Every structure is written in C-alpha cells, then in structure tokens.
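Quick one:
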Amino acid sequence: MAHSSTPTATTVTPAHSALRRFIGLALVHAVLVAGAVFMLAPFVWMLVTSIKPPAEIFSAEISLWPKQFYGVENFRFAFEKAPLLRFALNGVIICTGILVVQLLVAIPCAYALAKLNFPGRNLLFVLVLLGLCIPVQVPAMPLYIALAHLGLLNTYFSMMVPFFLSVFAIFLFRQFFRSFPDDIINAARLDGMSEFEIVWRIVTPSAWPAIAAFAVFSTVAHWNDLYWPLIVISDARLAPPPLGMMFFADAETGSNYGALTAAATILTAPLVIAFLIARRRFIDGITMTGVK
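Output:
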C-alpha cells in the first residue's frame, strides 16, 4: 500500500518574526549611524584641532583629545586677529535680507501657480523648472557691470540682489500649496477676502513647515557662499563668513591651523544653532505633511 506524503510548510513563529524585525532594524540603524559618523567626522576634527597646540596638529600620532589643552590660546588669537563677530553679523544680515525678500516674492508666485487658473500657467511653471538649471555664474558678468555702473559694489545690497528671486522656493511652495483645500479658499472668497489676504492670512500660516525647510536651505547656501561675495566685495568690514575666513587665513594665521579651525568653529556655530532650533519644522517641511 503506497503512502502519500505532503510537504509541511515552515511555520513562522512570533519569535522568528521578532528576530527578523530586530535584524532589519539593526541593519537600518547601523547604516544611519555610519552615515552620521561620516557626516560628523569633519566637524569633530575641526573642534579637536581648534584645541590642540601646533606640535600636536602636525604630529603623526592621531588622537581625539590633545595632550596639552590649547583651546584658550587658539580662540584668543582668532578673536584678536580678526573681527569674527563682525563676519558673523554680516552673514546674519545677508542671509536674513535674502530670505525675507525671497519669501515675499516666492509665496504669492507659488500660490498663483498652485491655485489660480490663468492662461499660460503650465508654461510659466515649466519656465520656473528651467530656471532651476541656471547657476549664478551665468548672469554674474552683467550683474557685476550693472552694479558697478550704479556704484553699488561693496554694499550689502550687491551681495543680496542676485538671490532675491528663488525659483527653488517657488517650486517648493507651489508643491506645498497644491495640498491646501480649495474649499477653504473658496469660502474665504465668498466672505469677500481678496487673493492677497487669502495668501498671507490663510494659506501662508499653514505653510510654516515648508517655510522653515526653505529657510534652512537658503541660510546654509548663502552663509557658505564665497563665489559672489568674492566678486563684489573688497572691503573686509563687509565680508560674510567664508570671505572673512579667507581674509583671515591669508593675512593673519599663516600655518596656525589651530587658530584657523577655532575661527571656523566660531563662524559655524550660529548655523548649527539655527538648524537645531528649526530641525523639527525642517523635517515636517521636507516630508510635506500638508495641512493638519
């Protein structure tokens, strides 16, 4: 008599499922930790170098903590030999001025592209996308000639004016505004509100996550910008942080890398603090959570 046998299916127990979930989470966190270490390594090295004496900086031995703490001397030298706080203040003025004008221009434009129906809207949006492909180096020469003829070189305005219109901001806010309910806008129109009032009193308050995300992008980009200030600024008193660091490195430090990294630490600190303050809004804006 023939006996028939059927294959038995492997039973997945709750313990096996929990083990797989644990391994998956461990791998994901391992990748994230490795990425975080890779990103933070330059900052850690900058901080460590800023508190080392010159002999240990050029030593072949690698150590994260100096044998002789030399941070007070390095930071004192940096503060005495360069107006670092003035460089930081210039960066704050430039980044704030650029960001304010960018928001005043981009938010109404993005609202019009997202919520208003008019001929050529799609074509205009395509032109906005094409504008993302144009770097600042393309209009640099005509902008420099125009500013020179107007006598506006060596001013805060000359460093800010090329960036007043941000096509990236228009694109970002347009994508965010598309998720805003049309019923709320129509109800506001029935109540007699103008489009201008709808933009600034109803739509914009809901867009704070997107505004915070763009503010981080804009501030980081213009705080670290060296190309354009190097063209239009020759007065060290108006120098933003990157240009000020270049003046400081050329004129004062020489091979004193401890003082140089101390100055870099001072000028990087405001940017890090601002990001830590806005990080939650920044994450919300990137993930595009929409209207809550």
